[in-house]
Design goal:
Elements lengths: L1 H18 L1 E9 L4 E4 L2 E2 L3 E2 L5 E6 L1 E8 L6 E7 L6 E4 L7 E8 L4 E6 L5 E6 L4 E6 L5 E6 L8 E7 L2 E6 L3 E6 L5 E6 L6 E7 L2 E6 L4 E6 L9 E2 L4 E7 L2 E6 L4 E6 L5 E6 L4 E7 L2 E6 L4 E6 L5 E6 L4 E6 L3 E6 L17 E6 L4 E6 L4 E6 L5 E6 L4 E7 L6
Length: 401
């Protein structure tokens, strides 16, 4: 009888405890993570969208996340019924990338660039008509550079050119600001409107690439005058310049077009995967992010001969190079309803060395998009496009690789 009563009271206690628990969804990475409360590891169930659901005690609670090879993360939550998914990422315990700071941005941060001295970050906002400016490394917001005429359209790209910073707006205008004083200098319509991006060609030239009409236009930075241009009916989704040549990705054709740096004419066309998008040049290699295969293809920069390929996370869509490394931003698997909505994965940023070998990686949040190294290669920054977020990492350069 005594044993039966103890068992009954135990079951009643468990029932009360279960009633006080709330099912809370989690979206966290790496996927090997585990959740602990009060030292107890919690079991989970899977939701239809792939998120894990954990039973957490209602009210204030400290939740600890751990994963192999990652630094532990502690979260203070006020658990209530109907909570939105808890989103969290764990930083690597070791590796070349160490998180310095994160900061909120304006709406839809599309692109970013470091000032020439590495002391400022400029973040172009596609969802607002402005460019947010932050101090490095604190990420304290300094001010917002706004469109001079107050046009409502947002910005697609921003580029530091030493004494000037150029920002391109969806209405077709490219605005120049003084890099030191942040004062507005002038504007010029160079794109005809649409999604346009900027690439420093060196020698006082900048290329304005318009993804919507397939044009790439070199511009003299001192006179603001367009030079010889390139135009294609293909879907242009990536462009870089190096070793005296331009490399254009034809997303819909699985090709890379090689442009002569003087005449701006196509001198070769190479096969490059299923859906090539971002392109970078480092050493004697052209790095091509293939969204169709979740790989980075390595091509000989002179001949286009395939050298190797390396697997990265799903949908590699941005790429940038320092003097020794290439960074690749992958947004992860798409949302099945619309790729512009958060998908089941966080994005990931992968570092490749000059030989195309994986040097390290970190998780981003929802769709890392803007991506830039500081000029000295000591910092890497990226934006989380769907989270209105900016992340800054310190980079340990490769040694003897």
């Amino acid at each position: 009888m005594k044993v039966a009563l103890l068992l009954l009271f135990g079951l009643l206690g468990w029932a009360v405890s279960a009633q006080d628990r709330v099912s809370v969804p989690f979206k966290a990475f790496p996927t090997e993570y585990e959740v602990f409360v009060g030292g107890d590891r919690l079991a989970y169930s899977l939701r239809g969208d792939g998120l894990r659901v954990y039973p957490l005690p209602q009210g204030p609670v400290r939740v600890n996340l751990t994963a192999p090879g990652s630094l532990p993360l502690s979260l203070s939550l006020d658990v209530k019924p109907g909570m939105a998914a808890i989103q969290a990422k764990l930083e690597p315990r070791q590796g070349p990338l160490s998180l310095v700071a994160e900061a909120a941005t304006g709406k839809s941060p599309r692109s970013l660039t470091f000032s020439a001295d590495g002391k400022k970050l400029f973040v172009a906002l596609q969802g607002e008509p402005g460019v947010d400016v932050y101090e490095v490394p604190s990420l304290k917001k300094m001010k917002r550079l706004a469109a001079p005429e107050g046009a409502p359209s947002g910005f697609t790209d921003v580029l530091s050119l030493g004494t000037e910073v150029w920002a391109v707006q969806n209405d077709g205008r490219v605005h120049a600001f003084d890099s030191a004083t942040l004062a507005f200098k002038d504007s010029k319509d160079l794109t005809g409107g649409g999604n346009a991006f900027l690439t420093d060609l060196g020698g006082g030239r900048v290329a304005v690439a318009n993804w919507d009409n397939g044009q790439i236009i070199p511009v003299d930075t001192s006179t603001r005058k367009p030079l010889a241009s390139f135009s294609s009916t293909a879907s242009v989704r990536g462009f870089t310049f190096g070793q005296g040549a331009g490399y254009v990705s034809y997303f819909d054709r699985g090709q890379i077009a090689v442009l002569d740096g003087a005449t701006w004419k196509v001198k070769a066309t190479w096969n490059a995967g299923k859906a090539p998008r971002p392109v970078a040049v480092l050493g004697g290699l052209v790095f091509v992010g293939d969204m169709g295969s979740a790989q980075v293809l390595l091509l000989d920069a002179a001949t286009g001969k395939p050298i190797n390929s390396v697997a990265v996370a799903s949908n590699p869509h941005q790429m940038t190079a320092s003097k020794t490394l290439v960074a690749v931003a992958s947004r992860g698997r798409n949302n099945p309803n619309d790729y512009q909505l958060p998908g089941p994965d966080f994005g990931k940023v992968t570092l490749l060395d000059a030989h195309g070998e994986v040097f390290g990686s970190v998780w981003g949040r929802n769709q890392p998009t803007g991506l830039a190294f500081s000029s000295d290669g000591k910092y890497l920054a990226f934006t989380d496009y769907l989270d209105d977020n900016l992340e800054l990492y310190r980079v340990a350069a490769p040694s003897g690789r």
